[in-house]
Amino acid sequence: MNPVAHHEARIAVLPFSIIHTIRLMVIAIRMSRLVGHTRQHMPMIQGLPPVYLAPILSYNTTAAAAFSTSSVMSQRRTRTNRDNNPNRGVSALRRTGLRHPVEMSRRPLPQPVVDPKKRSKVTIDPDHPLWGFFREDKKALNTPEEADAFGRPWVVEELRNKSWEDLHLLWWVCCRERNILATQEYERKRLKAGYGAAENMERFRVVGQTQKAIKHALTERYYAFEEARRVAVTDREVDLDAEPGSQAYTPLYSDETIMEEEYPVKRSAASPESTT
């Protein structure tokens, strides 16, 4: 067997950079033999390092994967933990559980009660705030007759005569009505009832018009208050810096004085005694 071919067969499994270095050495030896100047170039050939030191002379900085012709070693290797996360694969939704036992692992898990008779009764507070999202009968969805029975919205002319407390109360009644309508609309879509959608939208419109009328009445009162405050600044009879509970309006003239100035009484020159 040719020794050069034998060396090439031995180094076939080495990385590419090492093989390239060894091949250059072999080519140099062949050229020196062909030319016939082996003796003249023997110091140059002898100065070359031996073949087994070729891996040391390799300066390959790129990472190379191992290569093998066997079927077992040539299989692709996958990493099971790519990001070094110890909790990778732990999911409460998929019920994979924890990788390591914890304190709760020693305690048995509660089992569901299948028999309805053995289940504990749940007590519900009748005054719970969440009942505000339902009607007084605590039904999640109205019948078609109940859904169609509703009145008209309040108008501004009616709300102008209401007090601040009445307007405040009516506003929150409208807010509660909107919550009830939203709950019924969600329940209607969930059950796919097939009725009441148009009536529900009409109720939303009526409640919205009432709230708009309340804002209109309150805006009118605000502008009237600002106008009165502007007039009171220049009025001598009004004290804007008065303490709460004290009299802020002090008239300069009484009603009798005003009446006498506007309608003076004409008295006769004779005295009352002379007329008798």
Protein architecture, described:
This protein is mainly α. Helices cover 45% and strands 0% of the residues. It has helices spanning 3-10, 16-35, 42-46, 54-57, 144-148, 156-159, 164-191, 197-233, 255-262, 272-275. Helix 7 (164-191) runs antiparallel to helix 8. The N and C termini lie far apart (174 Å). Mean pLDDT is 75; it is low at 4-16.
| SSE sequence, one letter per element | HHHHHHHHHH
**How confident is the prediction overall: mean pLDDT?**
75
By DSSP, the count of extended strands is 0
Strand percentage: under 5%
Termini separation: 174 Å
Structure annotation, total helices: 10
Give the biggest sheet.
none
- The helix content is 40-55%
Shape: elongated
Structural class: mainly alpha
Unreliable stretches: 4-16
Radius of gyration: 51 Å
